């Protein structure tokens, strides 16, 4: 299987594991990350990018949580781990199956907005998160944010590729 196809499949499996939960979801994400790093990428090349995507995404979503756009059913300061790991999984795609979206920037914006609608819409549909400010308004906001975030993450990828560890 070509690397980009395997990367997309691994991302999808990890994303589904995060959304569908169950007792094995964390192990599934760990296995996806391990297979990615052994067969597609490497920690040495992608480590900073994965950590950056994880931390940046957690900060953005936690900020939206603090503003009251997300309700995960309990009082919390940070997003749940399953949501945070989706951002880590997004990081695994930037050098691989989503590399084609890096240029021109609008391509990453379009894909980011579409993925936001899919991912957050699925989370809402599955009952993992409630959107107190309304589904349409919040999904539109998240799509706009992702339209900015994915090009920014590609900028991190370019920066790290230009300055290896």
From TrEMBL:
Transmembrane helix recorded as keyword: yes
| PROSITE patterns found in the cross-reference section | PROKAR_LIPOPROTEIN (PS51257)
Pfam families of this UniProt entry? DUF2878 (PF11086)
Q: Which UniProt keywords apply?
A: Membrane, Transmembrane, Transmembrane helix
| Regions crossing the membrane | 12-37, 49-69, 81-101, 108-128, 140-161
Q: Which domain of life is it from?
A: Bacteria
**In its UniProt entry, what is this protein called?**
Uncharacterized protein
């Amino acid at each position: 299987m070509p690397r980009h196809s395997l990367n997309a499949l691994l991302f999808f499996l990890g994303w589904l594991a995060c959304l569908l939960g169950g007792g094995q979801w964390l192990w599934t994400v760990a296995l996806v990350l391990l297979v990615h790093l052994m067969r597609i990428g490497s920690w040495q090349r992608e480590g900073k990018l994965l950590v950056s995507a994880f931390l940046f995404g957690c900060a953005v979503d936690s900020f939206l949580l603090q503003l009251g756009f997300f309700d995960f059913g309990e009082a919390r300061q940070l997003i749940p781990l399953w949501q945070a790991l989706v951002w880590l999984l997004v990081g695994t795609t930037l050098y691989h199956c989503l590399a084609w979206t890096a240029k021109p920037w609008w391509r990453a914006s379009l894909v980011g907005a579409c993925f936001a609608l899919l991912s957050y819409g699925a989370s809402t549909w599955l009952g993992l998160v409630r959107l107190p400010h309304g589904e349409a308004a919040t999904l539109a906001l998240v799509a706009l944010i992702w339209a900015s975030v994915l090009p920014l993450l590609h900028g991190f990828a370019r920066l790290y590729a230009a300055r290896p560890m």
